[in-house]
User: Which sequence fits this backbone?
């Protein structure tokens, strides 16, 4: 049984520690306890001692008060440590409900295997995603002890990490994650809770229906949007989702539009069609269009198609005298509605999309108001290409071939050429045919070395990779491109990323010892900024160009302190080629440092010395 | 035959990052010329680095329990990522290692190593002989040191007296800086343990939440008691510096003494041919001592005594001191050294005196036989011990589970006499071992025992235990590491 006077005294003693023992003398609050413990001391001598000590404390001068207070505190706490009750008072008792069979629990991973993973799930240092990917490959997440941390990571601020946890790791663990997700789930509208709900739903929790009902009855729009996504897996929820498409909250309506498209029944698509034509919901237009664009629209296609055509006709019916605002709004509306044709694999769609860019009125109007409409027109061309990307590739290639012959030569049609180029590569055109078809377009600058690079570059699967990890297959490129690639470096060069790609391609194509390429590298090394020249140095050393060390030294020795801040030279200093330099360059760079007092010379000397 | 698996290689790594980096070298195909000797005791190879020449690394298992790693890279981490990567490469594809003769330089180094081991063994023998002879003590030096310690304790007492007299509320930022300066000064008096106790006090104060000072006052009680006992103890020692140090308590270590192995042997604090099983492991940041502590909880299979191992890694040297790993096998130790004092004494051993064997069901049965079946008796003795302000307030206990149920928020374990114990997390945890326990504890837990850490919350009056590991007849389920 809890002896309350002891805990009351503890509070008093704690208070005195906070205020200072100097206030103990004559403290009436302490004196109250003296009587209580004197009474208790009649049966238990240690309480009598407490009472005596307390009384002494209230009579002690300031100098000795600390000693007295500490002595009482030690005695009191010692007693308290013997008083602990092993259960809480008056609580409800129920049986344990194990969710796992202890026989199959895996806690085999060692501390050193778990530690980096658990840190990656709870801390905020860099490289965490890679740690998790690595751990996933090594089956670390089979260990039961990671589950609680994975649940915690759903509240992480780093989106990519959260996505990896929620979309890859948790689904792989499956239902064993449910008890942890449910334990920490709360009915609020934070992104973390929404993610938890999504995971619970995706793992097939049997009582998800009850959770959904509760969420829909409350004002939790983000949660409700997630519920709608979950409900869209079942056509039986059609009526409810149709109703929610008229909800007063925009987030809820937008989720409902997507769900209607996903269910794709006649009733759902009719609701979408009605929403599209409903003038009250202009702010929802983008969401409605997005929803419709994701479905093939087996019902009401004609109505939707007509809507797009109407928007096009509305635009081309205008002329250059029309008010700027009106004309911009018309093209904007058409561009938005054009997205409706994504995934609509009907013959009239191919014809219509091809017609847009060859339509005389359309092109004439944009040309006449170029400064006003150029940007939206380019966007519209991209929308056309996006639509084509969702249709049959062979039929699309045929459209591109015909468009190439009759499309006007305007800058808002250039991206069609690039899409056409990609379509040819995807259709496995021979390298010769690609050259024959596109060399003329290349000369106009519509396609550039980057596009050629994409035809022969084998990139790593990861989203994040260094350019040096890409493998170039020069055999995939027609040799006739070489002259065109060299042409980029003629005249005065303004360096941009295109030059980098041309150089990468030439480096892959040109054999070791090619004088033409070596001369180009030497020329470039002398004329480029430190920011751009590092790659040239790298190739020079790698190809073992005669005198490359001396050439690089002579270029770098020209760098002056006054030229720029030190970070300007950073790319050159950081190059790994210094490790290949002979040691005799160490004193040469040290000497440069002595003369110029530019730190990079010492750093380079260190790099050569410590190789 | 070299037998390597991921956990074993990671166990050799000085820290988790080194293991990760070693693995990355393999995935990036940095290794070449991978070789193994005909006896399959040595693997070696080349690893491409950033320089022109590769690094030459090897892993020598001629003494299987005590492998030697060699590499010509400049890393101060040991083993370096190249040696670790080499082992991962072997683990992933042993067939990729071609048989070859041991390179001459490694053969030479093996001979040197052998001689070194022999010398070490001789030294150890002489150490034991030496420990049997009484240690000569320089009385004057010992008294001088004790005098310095007593002076330090006097200063420490004044600091504490000021804190208590003026009150904790008087410690503002300026006063905190003053105190830090004064506490730093204590480092000059051979009383490192007392200095740490004061640092802990300041850290506890930083953690005060909602005017709840109980843990701070508990720490003040600890310091008060420590200063009192240290003064008495050192005054006695001063009178007779040649007398044996106190080993019934941890006072020497609490003052700041660091025990040497020879002293432990001399004091008879060692055991021959011990077998230990690790029941739980944790690693935490001890801010007061500015170091990380890897702490293992072990049971002695012969006696059932619960021990702790503590591997200290100061912040400054954290990259170069090997981080302990959790252990799943039974450790067979030629000599086990036991530090004085404490409910769960700290132990240590030497790496070369250790072999491992797989844990068996017999071991698990034995561990279960040591579990306390009578909670009342166990907790009575625990309470008696923890009422001493100088004793660790969170001892480890091993209890047999008879009945379990949820009572309010927490799990309650009950013994066959109806004595109960609440199983609850320690405060301040981001992850809850108790929640894990709730999910896996069977309705009928008989035949399972639990390792737990006692926590007596003097503010609420609840004496509970934090679950750490469950020992079933088949395995150990670890809730921490």
Assistant:
């Amino acid at each position: 049984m809890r002896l309350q006077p002891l805990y009351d005294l503890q509070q008093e003693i704690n208070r005195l520690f906070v205020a200072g023992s100097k206030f103990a003398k004559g403290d009436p609050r302490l004196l109250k306890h003296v009587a209580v413990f004197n009474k208790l001391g009649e049966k238990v001598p240690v309480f009598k001692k407490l009472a005596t000590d307390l009384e002494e404390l209230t009579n002690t001068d300031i100098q000795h008060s600390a000693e007295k207070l500490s002595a009482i505190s030690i005695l009191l706490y010692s007693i308290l440590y013997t008083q602990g009750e092993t259960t809480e008072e008056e609580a409800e008792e129920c049986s344990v409900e194990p969710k796992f069979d202890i026989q199959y629990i895996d806690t085999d991973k060692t501390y050193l295997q778990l530690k980096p993973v658990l840190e990656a799930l709870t801390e905020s240092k860099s490289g965490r995603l890679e740690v998790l990917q690595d751990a996933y490959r090594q089956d670390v997440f089979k260990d039961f002890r990671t589950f609680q941390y994975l649940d915690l990571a759903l509240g992480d601020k780093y989106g990519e990490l959260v996505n990896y946890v929620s979309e890859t790791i948790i689904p792989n663990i499956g239902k064993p994650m449910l008890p942890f997700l449910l334990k920490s789930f709360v009915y609020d509208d934070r992104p973390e809770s929404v993610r938890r709900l999504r995971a619970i739903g995706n793992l097939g929790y049997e009582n998800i229906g009850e959770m959904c009902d509760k969420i829909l009855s409350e004002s939790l729009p983000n949660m409700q949007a997630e519920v709608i996504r979950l409900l869209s897996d079942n056509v039986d929820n059609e009526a409810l989702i149709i109703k929610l498409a008229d909800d007063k909250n925009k987030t809820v309506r937008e989720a409902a539009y997507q769900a209607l498209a996903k269910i794709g029944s006649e009733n759902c698509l009719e609701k979408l069609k009605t929403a599209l034509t409903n003038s009250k919901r202009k702010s929802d237009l983008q969401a409605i269009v997005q929803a419709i664009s994701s479905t093939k629209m087996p019902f009401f296609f004609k109505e939707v198609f007509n809507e797009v055509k109407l928007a096009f006709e509305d635009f081309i019916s205008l002329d250059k005298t029309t008010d700027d605002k009106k004309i911009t709004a018309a093209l904007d509306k058409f561009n938005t509605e054009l997205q409706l044709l994504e995934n609509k694999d009907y013959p009239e769609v191919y014809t219509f999309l091809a017609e847009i860019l060859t339509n005389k009125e359309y092109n004439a109007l944009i040309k006449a108001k170029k400064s006003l409409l150029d940007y939206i027109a380019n966007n519209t061309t991209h929308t056309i290409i996006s639509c084509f990307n969702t249709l049959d590739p062979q039929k699309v290639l045929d459209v591109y071939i015909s468009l190439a012959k009759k499309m006007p030569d305007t800058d808002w049609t250039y991206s069609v050429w690039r899409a056409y180029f990609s379509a040819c590569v995807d259709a496995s055109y021979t390298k010769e045919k690609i050259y024959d078809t596109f060399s003329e377009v290349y000369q106009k600058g519509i396609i550039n070395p980057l596009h050629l690079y994409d035809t022969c570059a084998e990139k790593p699967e990861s989203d994040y990779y260094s350019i040096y990890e890409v493998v170039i297959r020069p055999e995939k490129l027609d040799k006739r491109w070489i002259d065109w690639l060299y042409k980029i470096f003629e005249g005065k060069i303004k360096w941009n990323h295109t030059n980098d790609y041309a150089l990468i391609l030439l480096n892959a194509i040109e054999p070791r010892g090619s004088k033409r390429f070596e001369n180009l590298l030497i020329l470039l090394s002398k004329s480029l900024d430190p920011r751009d020249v590092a790659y040239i140095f790298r190739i020079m050393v790698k190809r073992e160009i005669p005198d490359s060390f001396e050439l690089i030294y002579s270029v770098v020795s020209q760098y002056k302190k006054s030229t720029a801040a030190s970070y300007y030279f950073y790319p050159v200093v950081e190059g790994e080629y210094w490790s290949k330099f002979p040691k005799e360059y160490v004193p040469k760079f040290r000497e440069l440092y002595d003369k110029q007092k530019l730190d990079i010379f010492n750093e380079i000397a260190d790099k050569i010395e410590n190789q | 035959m070299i037998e390597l698996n991921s956990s074993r290689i990671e166990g050799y790594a000085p820290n988790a990052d080194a293991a990760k980096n070693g693995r990355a070298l393999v995935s990036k195909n940095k290794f070449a010329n991978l070789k193994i000797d005909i006896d399959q005791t040595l693997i070696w190879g080349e690893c491409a680095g950033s320089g022109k020449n590769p690094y030459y690394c090897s892993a020598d298992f001629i003494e299987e329990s005590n492998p030697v790693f060699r590499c010509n890279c400049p890393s101060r981490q040991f083993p370096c990522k190249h040696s670790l990567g080499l082992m991962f490469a072997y683990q992933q594809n042993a067939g990729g290692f071609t048989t070859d003769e041991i390179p001459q330089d490694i053969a030479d180094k093996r001979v040197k190593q052998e001689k070194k081991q022999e010398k070490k063994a001789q030294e150890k023998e002489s150490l034991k002989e030496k420990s049997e002879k009484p240690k000569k003590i320089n009385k004057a030096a010992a008294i001088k040191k004790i005098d310095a310690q007593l002076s330090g304790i006097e200063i420490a007492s004044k600091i504490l007296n000021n804190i208590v007299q003026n009150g904790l509320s008087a410690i503002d930022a300026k006063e905190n800086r003053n105190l830090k300066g004064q506490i730093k000064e204590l480092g000059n008096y051979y009383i490192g343990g007392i200095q740490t106790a004061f640092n802990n006090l300041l850290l506890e104060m930083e953690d005060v939440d909602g005017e709840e000072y109980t843990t701070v006052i508990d720490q003040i009680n600890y310091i008060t008691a420590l200063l009192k006992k240290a003064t008495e103890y050192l005054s006695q020692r001063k009178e007779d510096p040649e007398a044996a140090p106190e080993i019934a308590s941890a006072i020497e270590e609490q003052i700041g003494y660091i025990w040497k192995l020879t002293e432990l042997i001399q004091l008879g604090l060692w055991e021959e041919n011990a077998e230990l099983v690790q029941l739980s492991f944790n690693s935490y940041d001890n801010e007061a001592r500015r170091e990380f502590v890897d702490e293992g909880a072990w049971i002695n299979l012969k006696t059932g005594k619960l021990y702790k191992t503590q591997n200290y890694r100061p912040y400054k040297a954290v990259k170069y001191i090997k981080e302990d790993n959790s252990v799943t096998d039974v450790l067979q130790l030629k000599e086990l050294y036991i530090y004085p004092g404490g409910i769960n004494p700290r132990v240590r051993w030497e790496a070369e005196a250790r072999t491992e064997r797989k844990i068996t069901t017999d071991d698990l049965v034995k561990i279960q036989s040591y579990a306390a079946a009578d909670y009342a008796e166990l907790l009575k003795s625990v309470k008696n011990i923890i009422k001493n302000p100088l004793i660790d307030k969170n001892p480890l206990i091993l209890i047999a589970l008879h009945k379990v149920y949820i009572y309010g928020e927490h799990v309650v374990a009950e013994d066959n006499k109806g004595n109960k114990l609440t199983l609850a997390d320690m405060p301040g945890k981001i992850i809850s071992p108790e929640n894990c326990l709730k999910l896996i504890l069977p309705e009928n837990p008989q035949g399972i025992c639990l390792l737990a850490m006692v926590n007596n919350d003097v503010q609420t009056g609840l004496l509970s235990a934090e679950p750490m590991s469950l020992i079933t007849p088949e395995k150990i389920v670890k809730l921490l590491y």
